[in-house]
Amino acid sequence: MRWDRRFYGGVPNVNTSQPSTFEHLIHTTQQLVLEKGCRSTTLQDIIDRSGISKGGIYHYVSGKDELLGLVLKESFEETNRQFEEAVNAALQKHASVRPFEILSKRMAGKDVHGRVVNEIYLYLVSQMDKPKVQKILSDLYQFRHRLSVQWIQFGQQSGAIPQFVNVHQAAMILEVLRDGLRIQHAITEPPQHVQPDFVLQMLMNLLTDHSGMNLENKASKAGD
């Protein structure tokens, strides 16, 4: 399967031919977000902690919000890389984890990665009155949607997901589920958080429903 990683818009494509500075910038931003939260983390904090000059940071982004969007994009890329690795292992018949288990664990947000993504995403949503942030989130959504479509198409090609499932509608519902989990984690205590096993079960129930109706028909009936 050919994986399309193109991304255009509010969050820049980054040339990672020299990944050390870029990865250091992303890692430093993640650490500061964990320690201080998005609102309290300033671009100067990132400059001081990383040792990267302001000009060096502006080589990648034009400001803090765009940098946070770039951290999210890199996180989605990492999820896709892990999914691809699980797909390749499955094709070679020696998989230790199923591809959709990768998605359920990432969506459940139980690790450090999940906390960083949730913190940044909810912060950016709270800044939606800024046109630039609206553009960042819109472009990130389109990027996530394309990845979700690829994942569902793989499931159909492998026979794990029925052909009648409407790929784009399923991808949209996948995004709704993912964002809903972020909100749930933000407003509840850890004992109430949805667990990865339940996310996997919910995800596969959604994508393997053999009731004979596609998701587009279900969505139209739900609106009646």
From TrEMBL:
It comes from the Bacteria. This is TetR/AcrR family transcriptional regulator. Residues 19-79 form the HTH tetR-type domain. The lineage of its organism: Bacteria, Bacillati, Bacillota, Bacilli, Bacillales. Pfam families: TetR_N. Keywords: DNA-binding, Transcription, Transcription regulation. PANTHER family: HTH-TYPE TRANSCRIPTIONAL REPRESSOR NEMR, TRANSCRIPTIONAL REGULATORY PROTEIN. InterPro entries: Homeodomain-like_sf, HTH_TetR, Tet_transcr_reg_TetR-rel_C_sf. Residues 42-61 bind DNA.
